[in-house]
Amino acid sequence: MKEENSCKASIKNCLEQRYFSIARLYKEEKTMDIHIHDCYEIYYSISGGKQILIHNKLYDISPGDLFVINQYESHHVSKVDRAHERIVISIHPEFLKSISSDKTDLSYCFTNRSENFNHKISLNKEQQQHFLYFINKIIATNGYGSDIIEYASFLELITLLNGIYIANNNLHIDDHSYKYNQQVQEIITYINENITELITIDYLANHFYLSPSYICRIFKSATGTTINKYISARRITIAKSLLANGTNVNEVCEKCGFNDYTNFLKTFKNAVGISPKKYSTFSIS
């Protein structure tokens, strides 16, 4: 398999081939703004970084940390050090579903979102070696039988990661690895609990007894993205989920907090690449 050097190229390849794709990223690639996409993502940090915001949780990133992100979870890497090597695996949900069995759901680490689950898996040294072994095997294989070796290696890799994910989330760890400034935590919680309502920066500032400039500054400092971008990404996440379940486009517009239909169409198309109606058609089919 060709190793991509761009996250966008890897996602594009994954969606077009309805398969999986691997990208190895270095310091010279600028991290993407807060975003969502129609494939599962495994984010593995080699050198460590600063923090990653997933949905409404902000995690510190250390070498050997791995994150599992589904197609409805907005995410953004913030405060990245210049030297930040990582591996990103993009996986088409239908491909993962097709290789699962009645006894083994290989999508489990992406679909299990119980109350106290954790996106983050901190791999130990042995697990890191296993992970990199399978990645290098997939990338290096060529010649006769390379497609079989690639497929089999990925199958082993995703089975291994699901096993680690299940074991980690059954530990019921009290000291959660996600954290953020207490004020920002309250702001994020409020936004998610009121995402269908009209939320403005002025309204948030008044609600939390802060100035508009101060609330914007602390939010950007903690998460690496702006309040408006976060709200927009969360609403698009909800819209995608509703459309995938067959909800009418007009109803989706209302349920995800867009008070203007034209604005909803424009924002959705800019974020996803196609109109809500087309997305609904493709998802249902």
TrEMBL record:
**SMART domains referenced in this protein's UniProt entry, alphabetically:** HTH_ARAC (SM00342)
Record bears the keyword tRNA processing = no
| Start and end residues of each HTH araC/xylS-type domain | 185-282
Task: List the molecular function annotations (GO) for this entry.
Answer: DNA-binding transcription factor activity; sequence-specific DNA binding
Q: Which InterPro entries match?
A: AraC-bd, Homeodomain-like_sf, HTH-like, HTH_AraC, HTH_AraC-typ_CS, RmlC-like_jellyroll
- SUPFAM superfamilies cross-referenced by the UniProt entry: Homeodomain-like, Regulatory protein AraC
**This protein's superkingdom?**
Bacteria
The UniProt entry's coiled-coil ranges are: none
Query: What does the UniProt keyword field contain?
Result: DNA-binding, Transcription, Transcription regulation
PANTHER family recorded? ARAC-FAMILY TRANSCRIPTIONAL REGULATOR
Output this protein's name: AraC family transcriptional regulator
Organism equals: Clostridium beijerinckii (Clostridium MP)
Q: What is the lineage of its organism?
A: Bacteria, Bacillati, Bacillota, Clostridia, Eubacteriales
